[in-house]
Design a protein that fits this description.
alpha+beta; Butyryl-CoA Dehydrogenase, subunit A, domain 3; about 50% helix
């Protein structure tokens, strides 16, 4: 069966539930988008998901990504699909939060959801490049933007975030990667090892721009002393042209349970003391304090929401596939019919199959509604001329982030297991895609902080920030919804 997705479910969220008109009335969007654009954009997005993105998913899982003699060979079609999405405005340029001509998140993420359901491996590359681009837009100098953004957005290059080290995972302040000053106050020598780097070396682009957390020489202890550096795999000259290799070495690629077509790399920076990075943001202050981790959290929070959203996209794709299979598969007779000559029925007629399908549908639609409420809040926070409202909505969106990441990713595993159950024995085989959805989704409960880390974030930070006012405002959103419906 070909990739299935119900575009109507997404249109309902944008056209009948959320106040999308309020977002489109913002100055950034009012001359570019209207409600009439939603149907054609989502219809075309579904066509691309089905005809362009989905075909590389199963084959990529079977063939995987190869690493031999220091060279990465991507799975078939990945280079072409990544370039297609980026070049044609369906990738990073559509989701960058401050880029002129970019879509509202509500619309961009509706399209993005279908791409994630069609192939999470390729969509993760696009998402990371979007995150790097947003960091450059928000914190980079004009020279940084001119140097890196054009080719990141065109698909010539891609981006990564480099936090995890062999002895520092969730406990980021323990990182040992170092940044040493040079004669140029903006350029540092980088030395260290980063592991589990998604997209660390993919073979699909001519260059990779790594956002690397490192402690500058003399940096304060703990998280306050961590800086953030732009480290290209191949050095980028001031005019945007490529220079020489930047001493970023791929040691290995991980062999994983899922996302087998996606590169997860172990990288060495500065093996030969010739790796350089450009400092992002201000220099360390007189106490050795930097803004690196705070800046990186902008990208990490995007990635946390994307992880939850991507997990629900895969769960929804599993549901749509299972429901179509249940309509088409003939097996058994109606419950209670003792006549052996009775007509056999599609399995969707059986009560337990219906129960599982309804459970999947209720959960995926409810989780989607929660996630898109968050995108609505971010659209208003980033674009409203009402500064007080924008500030409040941004704070409420921060409360949403760990909930979206944790609940959606954990629920997806159970929902995909139900999809396998609907198909029965064949669902457990690689003949059908639902087992791949389950394998590919597991990492989403771990990426960007485990579910326990999200719980810590909610209880220790988000519920307490600003004396609990954003959390109270979030509760009021729920209360208002209950009263309304």
């Amino acid at each position: 069966m070909e990739f299935k997705y119900n575009v109507r479910d997404l249109k309902f969220i944008l056209k009948e539930w959320l106040p999308t008109e309020e977002v489109l009335a913002c100055d950034r969007f009012k001359d570019y988008f209207s409600m009439d654009d939603i149907d054609p954009l989502l219809n075309e997005g579904y066509k691309i998901a089905r005809e362009v993105v989905s075909p590389i998913n199963t084959e990529g899982d079977k063939i995987g990504i190869k690493f031999e003699n220091g060279v990465v060979t991507p799975a078939p079609g990945f280079s072409e699909v990544y370039r297609f999405l980026q070049e044609n405005g369906w990738g990073s340029s559509s989701e960058c939060i401050e880029l002129e001509g970019g879509m509202p998140l509500l619309i961009a993420k509706a399209v993005s959801e279908m791409f994630s359901g069609a192939c999470t491996a390729i969509k993760s590359y696009v998402g990371l490049t979007t995150g790097v681009s947003n960091l450059l837009i928000k914190f980079g100098t004009e020279q940084d933007k001119e140097r890196f953004l054009p080719k990141l957005l065109s698909g010539d290059w891609q981006g990564t975030m480099c936090l995890t080290e062999p002895n520092a995972g969730s406990d980021v302040p323990d990182i040992v990667t170092r940044a040493y000053p040079t004669d140029n106050p903006l350029i540092y020598k980088i030395k260290g090892t980063k592991m589990f780097i998604t997209g660390g070396d993919t073979g699909i682009c001519e260059n990779t721009i790594h956002m690397v957390l490192a402690r500058p020489e003399g940096g304060a202890p703990g998280s306050a002393g961590i800086g953030l550096y732009i480290v290209p795999k191949i050095w980028v000259n001031e005019d945007g042209s490529l220079g020489k290799p930047n001493d970023v070495v791929t040691v290995s690629l991980e062999h994983k349970m899922g996302l087998k077509a996606q590169a997860t790399a172990l990288l060495n920076f500065g093996e030969n003391d010739e790796c350089y990075g450009i400092r992002l943001g201000p220099a360390p202050d007189e106490k050795g304090r930097s803004k690196g981790l705070a800046m990186m959290f902008h990208m990490m929070n995007e990635a946390r929401i994307s992880s939850g959203h991507g997990a629900n996209a895969q769960a929804a794709a599993a549901y749509y596939f299972a429901s179509q299979s249940a309509i088409e598969r003939i097996q058994g007779r109606p419950f209670g019919d003792k006549n052996p000559a009775a007509q056999r029925v599609p399995i969707i007629k059986h009560e337990d199959i219906r129960r599982m399908l309804l459970d999947m549908k209720a959960h995926t639609e409810g989780i989607r509604a929660m996630i898109f409420r968050g995108f609505y809040l971010l659209d208003i926070a980033n674009n409203s001329s009402d500064k007080e409202k924008a500030k409040l909505y941004h704070s409420i969106a921060e409360v949403f982030t760990p909930l979206v990441k944790c609940y959606a990713s954990e629920a997806a595993l159970n929902l995909e297991a139900e999809a396998i159950q609907v198909l029965g024995g064949v669902g457990y085989t690689q003949e059908y895609p639902v087992e791949q959805y389950l394998r590919d989704s597991k990492i989403l409960t771990i990426w960007e902080g485990t579910s326990y880390i999200q719980a810590q974030d909610l209880v220790n930070r988000k519920m307490r920030m600003q004396e609990g006012k954003p959390f109270a405002a979030w509760l009021k959103v729920i209360e208002d919804f209950i009263r309304q419906y």
